[in-house]
Every structure is written in structure tokens, then in C-alpha cells.
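Appendix B, record 7
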Amino acid sequence: MTIQSFTKEGQKGEKFTLLHMKVLEVARTLKSEQGLFDMMTLFERCIRGLPYSEPQIYQIIQDLYQMKCIVEGKLLFKEDILTNEKRRKIFEYVTEHPGAHTREIQTTFNLGSYMAFRHLAFLEKFNFIRKKPYKNKIVYFPSDSDEQEDLKVLLFRNQTINRIYRLIEDLGKVRATEISESLKIPYTTIQSHLNELVESGLISKVKENQTVFYIPTEIKESKGAIEVKREFDYLGGQIRFKVAVRNLTDMTINNIAVNLNPSDQFIADVPQQSIANLPPKTTRGIDFTLTPLTCGQSNIFGIVAYQDAYGKVHSIPINPKEISIKCPLVKPLNATQQEVNEWIKKLRRATGTIGFQKITEKEAFRIGREQINALDLNEVNVDFDNHWGLYSGEVKVTGNNMVVKLSIVDPNIILDVWADDLKQTTGFIAYISNLINLALEGSYKLVRKTHEVSTKIIQLMHLSKGLDELFSKCEGVCLETEISEYLVKSEELLANAFSDSALLRSIRETNSDLKQICSKDSTINEEEAIQLRFKCLTWLYKVQELIQYHINTYQNTFDEFNTVSDEFLAGYDTISARINELERIYAQGILCYLLILDKKSGITIFERNLGDLKINPDLVGGFLHALQSFGFEISERESSMKTLTYENYQFQIEVGEDIRAALILRGTANQYIIAKLKSFVKQFEQNFGEDIRSFSGNMSAFMPANALFDAIFK
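C-alpha cells (predicted):
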């Protein structure tokens, strides 16, 4: 019979002898008779019942104990442990997930702390698993696993550490900041995990020129296997950085990856290039093209990784190489087109290309021309139609001539520079390119802003149209649902571009209030309709104000967009005219009664019913006069009360030198009514001043005021 035994040396089959089997049978009998038993009880029972010597029996019992086939003080035998399905699954889980901790096992198998402890204790007691403390947890491993690998296993259970190690393994050599940027993980977290990996021996830390790199431990640098040389030269407006790799070994090396790390001063066209294989004693060169962004000095370095003939990965640094980009100081130098043509024949040329987007060729040419003119060069010739310009100057340090040509080949700004030294041309292109790029970025922002502003203006114009329709809707019989639909559409137009505006909040509040007041399919009453018309006017004024603001912003962006902004201005004028018309319609719809009172006596000298309101003019006039007198009593000065509200009516009051006019309205007075009433009072006093001051009760003298009212209000 073969039984599985789990030891630190690994799983192996132990061949049981007949004596092993006999002793186990005695042990089972003891278990059935008394449950628990100790080694001495088992030894004595075997001596009495088995025909073997004491030393033989003792040795067999020792074997069974060492193999943990039986455990003193336990009711179970090793072969019984895994008959429990839950316990067997826990053992399989630990085998598949070495380093699993107690809470993880509890969660995975939905166990309470006691049952998890009991199962794990059995597995540990019978040598299926082993445990060890790690940080603030107890973790478990299969008994046959290598304890020396425990720390590595535990580290790789952490997904972040796993990602960090894989990145280091892929790149061969990398800085902590590069890991942080690549994996989007905070630098402090990266540093902590790197320390753990170094302590575990999985990676090594190397230092080169005050810079710390991390490499996999098994990827040690191979000294003397390859040689790396680097050099650079000026190529037009760019730098050609050459890396030469020489195989010094007697065998072919493969998968050579050359990674260049340019400083922020340069942009590399391709930062990584590769060589499939390199035969013994041969050299292969790789060219990188670097575009300078600014003038100054900086170091270019990198790393070469490769596989040797045995498949082992190695790496060697590309030592830093300093590159200097000089920006020449220039001054204007007058020259003719013919003179410039002669200079060009003797000078060396470099070309720089700057891409642009979202703007026209005309705008790109304007930007390039402005930046070159800022350098104080002489403008020899310029063609605005074909977008090119020619400039001449003198390098201050050397006194030599320089020529610059600006041209536009959509979608690029082309800079051709001629000088006697390519260092000067490269530096000049780097300097002017940086200025142009900054100006382009500013232009892009303006274009984006222009698009945003135009979108807002269009949305506001759509909103004004909707509010106009809503105003007209409220003049007749309309359902609450119809009004709500208009308000919801208005909210949607405002939601994107004006999400935090007072206008949007006001429309939302009105819609909410309307739903609370009216049932879903009911019609709104006259009072509610008047209030909505007034709110529509208020909202339209706000829309008009916003449109005017954004049109001003739009006009100040680009001169060439004036044609488009003229369309917006025409739309704005249309909206303004419509608001004036709606003001008049609203005002005429709420006029009820006009009273003109003598200011001193409070006697009504003129009245006109503008609707179907029935009042006692003398009673109302006396009431208003009494209120004004009361105000004078408590403030010791003439009251300036302008508005009085009573139930659904509003009194709009205007006081002149000799009269007090009161308009009784069915809604809130708008600017149209206030302005017209003020004008009416002024004209009334001019026309009837003498009649007012000599009034003795004859109201017929003021009958012509009807025509005056019609002329002003209608």
C-alpha cells in the first residue's frame, strides 16, 4: 500500500511494510475504543498483539509519527484529513496560492474565524501546510515548498510590486521616476516597493553619474562583451545623434535594443531602435534625430540591452554626451533681394518645420512673421498673398551675414535659415521655433474660445426663440404640460454651456413651482399666465445681456471673423426689437385703470378705465393719498412709494410736481410701463399745468388727456 507523505523535501511515495500496516490497524482499534491515545499506549498494545520485537515496533511507530500518519492526541489519521471536502479545498487553495493569509482563506471559503482556524490547524499538524508570520498577518505555504522562496512569493502576490518588477524586467534598467510615470503610481509608493524588491534580492540598485537605476538581479551588466560609442553632428535645424554598438565576443548577440533618453531640451523622432543580431567582431550604427526646443546645454544618455548567445539578457549604459545649442544674437542688416541671393550661395542652409492646425494659412503666416520681426531682422521682401517673407541680418558675435525665409506650406510653417555655421542655424531655428510654438498655442486657445463662444451665442439665440414662443403661448389658453415642455427645452439649452447660471436656476424653479400648483393636464389660469409672461421678459433681458457679452468677446478674438460676428449682431438686433415689442404687448395686456390725483388734496382730477375693472375712483384716490400722507408723517418727508400690491393687482405710482398718477395693473409693472407712465406724467403737467393749479371740480378740462394717453402708451 502506498500513502502520500508531505515533507520539506517534496511529495514522495513511501512504501509501507506489513508491519506498518499492522501498527496502523492497532492504532485504529485504539481510536475506536478510547478516542485519544498516546505513543506509550500504542506501543504497549502492539507488543501484546503483534509478533515482532520491541525495537522493531518502536521504530515503526516512530516512522508513522515522523510521517505524521498518526499524531499523538488527535482523533484523525493523516489519510483521513483530506476526506473532509472543505479542508481538501483549503489545502488545494494554499497549494495554488502560496502565501495566502488567514482572512483571505476565510473570505474565499465563507468561513468563520473558528472553523478556518480548525481546518488550518489540522492541515498544519499533519504536515500538509506550514505557516509563518508576515508583516501583521499569518500566511500559509504547502509544506513541500522552498522556504527560501517565501519572501519572493509574498512580494509577487502584491499586484503593484508585480507590475514594477515586470517593467524593470522588460526595460532592463530604469529609474524610479520613470517607473512612477509609466505605471501612474505615486513616487513614494514606488520607492517603498523598490526597497522591498532590493532587500529580497530580486532586483539590484546601480548608480551611474549620480543617477540611480534599478535592474533585475539576474541581469548583471556584462563588462567587455560589447562596446558602445556615441557622437553627434548638426543636420540642418536638427541634431543627428549616432550610437555605434560593437560586438567584442566570438559569438553573435541578438535582440539589441538601444534606448535614448534625451533631455527636455530635445524631442527624439524615435526614442528606441533595435538591431536584430550582431555577428562577432562587427559594429552597427544607429542614428537618432533630435529636434532642439530651446537653446542651452544638456546631456544625452541612454542604455543598450541585448541577449548573449546563451539567451541571457545584459545591459550597458550609453554614457552622457553634452550637446550645446547656441542661439545667435542678430541685428538688422539692410539688403536687396539680389544681395540676399548672392549671400545664400556662400552660406550653409538649415530648415525647420513647425506644424499647425485649427487656424488658416493667413493666421499661421501672421504668427510666424510677428515672431521673426520681434528679433529685429530686416524685412527684405514679403508676399502676403502667397504667404512668404525674406529677412536679412548680421550675427553680432561674428559679424557674418544671416538670411531667414518664412513660408507656409499647409499644414506647416517652414523656416529656412542660411548662415556660415550650422551651429548658428540650428540654434536660431530652435529659438524661433520655440517662440512660434508658444504663439501658436495661444492662437489655438483663442480658436477654442471662439468656438465655445459662438456655440454659446447660437444656443442663446435658440433659447430666445423658445422664450418668445412661450410668451405667445401664455397669451391664450394653454396646458401645464405644454408650458413645462418649453421650460424643459430651455433648461436643456442652458445645461451644457451655462450649467451654473442664475438664469438656469430661475427657469428650473419656475417649472418646479408650476408642477406643484397645477395638475398635469390642467390649464393655467390668467394670473399664472401673466406671471409667466413677465418672467419670459425677465429671462429674455438676461439672454440679451449674455448674447451682447459673448458677441463682444467674439469680435475681440480674430479680425477675420467679423463676417460671422456681423451675423450674430443682426440676430442680436432682431432679439432686441422683439423684446421691445413683447414689452408693449405685455404692458397693454395688464393695464386696468388710470387715476390722476391732485397732489395736494388727493382729489381725482382724471380717470380712465382701461379694462373691465369697476372701482370707486374717489375712494381709491383717497386711500392712495392717505398712504402718502401716512408716509410723510412717519418719515417727515414726502413718501417716495412707487409700487403697491393688493391681491392680484399692482398699483404703479408716479409723482410729478402737481399730480400723482396711479396705474392699476393685473401683473407686475415692466420697464415699458414705468417709462411710459413717467413720460405721461411729465407731458400731462406740461399740457394741463394751469388747469391743475386752478382746479375747482371741473374734470372736463382734462378730457384731452385720453388722446395723450393713447399717443404715449399705444
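Remarks on this record: The longest strand covers residues 313-325. Confidence is low (pLDDT under 50) at residues 1-13.
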